[in-house]
Design goal:
- This protein is mainly alpha-helical and about 220 residues long.
- About 55% of the residues lie in helices and about 10% in strands.
- The protein has nine helices and five strands, in the order ααββββαααβαααα.
- Helix 3 packs across helix 4 and helix 5 crosses helix 6.
- The longest helix has 26 residues.
- The radius of gyration is 24 Å and the shape is elongated.
- InterPro entries: DUF247_pln.
Length: about 220
């Protein structure tokens, strides 16, 4: 028993050292990156800067991607089902990953931590449900939010997993021009009726300008 405990402590020490090396490596990838880069934004924060959610239509945990642009930005997430057994399932998988008998990439820990960072409030869960990313068979949206918050207490993820996605989100979030354009596009072109109304307003403005122009400067005879 004592030998087994010492082995666990030894493996934890080795893993902790590797984790610190990975964090330093990630931070060193970009000169603008700092410790604050190691945090995510929740769904409401992303939505506020024009980042939309999209389902990858798969359940592979690595199917997370971010695509930014001038007029829109999209965060793609895999589908996930949350039920009464999800808490036990995640805890068992996390415990399995923490087992000192073998090395792994801590994919479950990293994914659960990523989702927890996106989910702070029931509104975040509601947004994920509306996009077909999260299907719940567990009470209310608040129960789902609490589930992720509780599971991820003191949980450490691999900083290299999803780092590129996090970096892209950070760059988009800090770029005010992209944010303003994305917000405007989302506000005025989010539905066919909004596009029609905007087009009609532009046409009316152009016709008014033409009418005013010919009134001031009538065509020469």
């Amino acid at each position: 028993m004592m030998k087994w405990s010492l082995n666990i402590l030894k493996r934890m020490k080795i893993w902790s050292g590797k984790l610190n090396d990975k964090i330093k490596k990630c931070i060193g990838k970009n000169s603008k990156t700092n410790i604050q880069m190691l945090t995510y934004r929740n769904i409401q924060d992303l939505k506020a800067v024009g980042i939309r959610l999209k389902s990858s239509m798969t359940q592979r945990l690595r199917d997370i991607d971010f695509c930014g642009g001038w007029f829109s930005a999209e965060l793609t997430l895999p589908m996930i089902i949350v039920s009464n057994s999800s808490a036990h399932t995640f805890r068992n998988l996390i415990a399995y990953e923490m087992c000192p008998d073998f090395e792994n990439d801590y994919g479950i820990c990293s994914f659960v931590t990523f989702m927890d960072s996106l989910i702070d409030h029931p509104e975040d869960v509601k947004e994920l449900r509306s996009k077909g990313i999260l299907a719940k068979c567990l009470g209310s949206d608040e129960d789902v939010a609490n589930l992720f918050n509780i599971i991820c207490t003191d949980l450490v993820a691999d900083p290299e997993i999803y780092f590129e996605v996090r970096l892209k989100i950070h760059d988009h979030y800090c770029n005010k021009y992209n944010t303003w354009i994305a917000q405007g596009f989302h506000t005025y072109f989010s539905s066919p009726w909004a596009i029609i109304a905007f087009t009609a307003a532009v046409i009316a403005l152009v016709l008014t300008f033409i009418q005013t122009w010919f009134t001031i400067q009538p065509a020469s005879k």
